[in-house]
Amino acid sequence: MGAHLLTEQHLASLAAERQITYTAIREGLYSESFPVYTAWFNIHNPMYEIKIPHSGDSPGIAWVKTDDLGEATAKIIFSYVKGSGVFPWVNRVMLLSGPRAISLRETVDILGRVTGKSIKIKEISADEYAELPFKEKYWYRGAILLKDYTSCWEAFKRGEAAVVSPLLGEILDREPEDFKTTVRGLLAR
Hints:
The chain has ten helices and four strands. The chain has helices at residues 2-16, 34-37, 66-82, 104-115, 126-130, 135-138, 146-149, 151-157, 167-172, 179-188, and strands spanning 23-27, 49-52, 92-96, 120-123. The longest helix is centred in the middle third of the chain and has 17 residues, at 66-82.
């Protein structure tokens, strides 16, 4: 997300001028947000074909559960506030990602196993995606151009969402929840 990177750059420039100190937390893609990247797949009413501008091949996404991110962020803040004055993340960026990157094809396979359906990805163009019928239901008119949003799949192809860091597990002092477990929990709701 370009705006996030610009914010980090601005914070770093202010820190270089000794105007502030900062810690930026980069969160991986939320496991619970998978519908955004799977043509609004609904685990309670699954479709058999997911049309997206991506083949589903690797490198993939290091999905991460929002509850794990919230817990880790709280621990980071607590560590800073109650610490002994030494905080290793001053003027630095922290990456909190899921425990492993999985391709969109594997993501869809997991959705299929959890829902008991055989689901396939059909790769379509960005133009075709922008015209899918869900655009009026899920995207605010004028707030975002759906075709422009398809750049996220280009970022996936470049591996920008596949970066795995052990930091989240270290902060939690346990392995972060995997994507399949999170999806099973969502299905149970």
